[in-house]
Here is the input.
Amino acid sequence: MTRYFATCARGLEPVLAGELNALGASDVEPGRGGVTFRGDAAMFYRACLWLRTAVRVLRPVHEFSAHSPDELYDAVRSVNWSEWMTPDHTLAVDCNVRDSAITHSQYAARRVKDAICDQFRDRTGRRPSVDTEQPMIGLNLHVSKNRAILSLDGSWSSLHKRGYRPIQTIAPLNEALAAGLLLCAGYDGTAPLADPLCGSGTFCIEAAWIALNRAPGLTRQWFALQGWPDFDRPLWNAIRDDARRAVRKDLPHPIIGSDVRQDAIDFARANARTAGVGNLLTFEKRDVRDARPPSDLPGALICNPPYGERLGAAVKPGFAGDRPRGPADEEKELIGLYQLIGRTAAEHWRGWRLFVFTSNTTLAKKVGLKVVHKAPFFNGALECFLWEFRV
Ligand SMILES: C[S@@+](CC[C@H](N)C(=O)[O-])C[C@H]1O[C@@H](n2cnc3c(N)ncnc32)[C@H](O)[C@@H]1O
Here is the structure.
């Protein structure tokens, strides 16, 4: 059984651990920004294909102390790289450093690549070439407090890039974080779901995939693990075929999204089509004050309203008109919006559970409903909270 590490946004570790347990992983241990687990190759493949909240799934190759780029180089050269690749494999190295004597991540990544290429050149006279787009061997170097872990990255490009959202325009929520927030909210498809500020539709699409039991990796064209020397193609194909067969055809309960902006609704519809759920979701242009439940059965009302830090210029037209505005104007509008969300929920969504994801505590309190729970998450470097309100 091999030890693996799946990374995630901070705050999502318990959710990711829950996903890994459900997939049958052993020795699942949540840490900071990720979860350690054990399993065989099939488990690793399932993790890459099925995990909704993971950003990367890593297979550690070497763990060592590194106080300088030279020490890093020597440690990487001490690994017998012919066990992991050949000079015909393409290579790329990604690096993150924290609280360490090595501070320059790009230089560290280059030293790792040099150490591997130099070893192959000395032993065989040939060296692997670099492909940063689609490497067959994608390595992740993580250095924290002068401890380095060098791992193979199962996907290379981050797993949150599901492949259904090419257009990044209106401060969309990271797909893995959106899925994690839905799972935290207890969403499992057994009740309706609505997002009345749906933007590009991320909550609705991720919810549909959860409700349909659709593996998030099914839309992805390529995983780096497919280029590894020990890649087991029949096993991988069997796991993908099982995942395809496991997809339900219909949603048991409605999932609806609305937004005040027509362009947001257009994006949401296009994204849903690419995600294979265009015919199952309803998106409509509508102000949040006019949002109404899709069914008598109560469910989850979840949204990620603007919080004044990331949207910036992108939200000005359509959100507040085209005239130039100052921060005070914006804050006043946002206070009004959060109050409106609370009032609309109280008047029209009785019995539903309201979840609001925001970094702004002052604004969250303007919702004006009783707080049931408040959970912290990191959206990039920004600390945010998922607030649950009693309606
Ligand atoms: C942060 S974005 C939501 C992003 C979304 N979660 C996604 O993943 O794309 C906030 C959205 O709230 C919408 N919005 C702002 N005021 C609104 C209102 N009064 N009624 C409905 N939608 C509104 C904006 O148009 C914007 O799309």
User: Anything to note?
Assistant: The first helix runs from residue 13 to 23. The mean pLDDT is 93.
